[in-house]
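With this grant's support, we have paired protein sequences with backbone structure tokens. One protein thus recorded is set out beneath this paragraph:

_____
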Amino acid sequence: MPLILHKNIENGEIGLWKITEELEELILLAELSTDDLIIYSGISTIFRKKEWLATRTLLNQLNGNKSQIRYHNDGRPFLEYGQTNISISHTKSFVAVMLLTENLPGIDIELKSREVGRVARRFLSPEEYDGCMAQTEYRNRNLLIHWCAKEAVFKMIPLGNIEFSTDIQITLDDCKPDYGVFYGLFNQKGDKIPIKLEYMELDELFMVWGCTEEIIQTG
């Protein structure tokens, strides 16, 4: 079973799964409920089926009580039973799940091979863009970590109409190899809410995660 990372964090855990199984094996591993089988039957592509099954398989590995994943109207996932909060990310052949018993989690993974330079100005402020581009050798690396960080923050904020380039700011002064800690700021109506973030560099991936207290005003 390709559980390639299981990391304990404060008040929770992170799991990373590499999808190598065929559909038949994943269906057995996922242990789907009757409701989940109905949802699964409506998924059209094999790639999406595997991704969906692998997410539930990974959750089973992390959370022994077989909680069901459901979704808020805005698309954010939650667990049907219990008080544990969940965040999910996936990219080609990989799925990540973050579980927290307190606060709102956000996690994002991206392949190192992904090129985001052409769209960088859409999600970065001018200052962030200049900072990423200043280090020629690490441009795409820095861009990807910024992208993952903003996606992670976005996933933990229960609000719509968030503008990545202005509402989420990332401070990443020194991008160290393998692992690092840095901060993001979420700009809500002029109030800047600090969010601690961590990143990990794996063989094929960058992974960024963090959490925020439920202090974001939705009204």
Q: What stands out?
A: The CA atoms of residues 109 and 155 lie 12 Å apart.
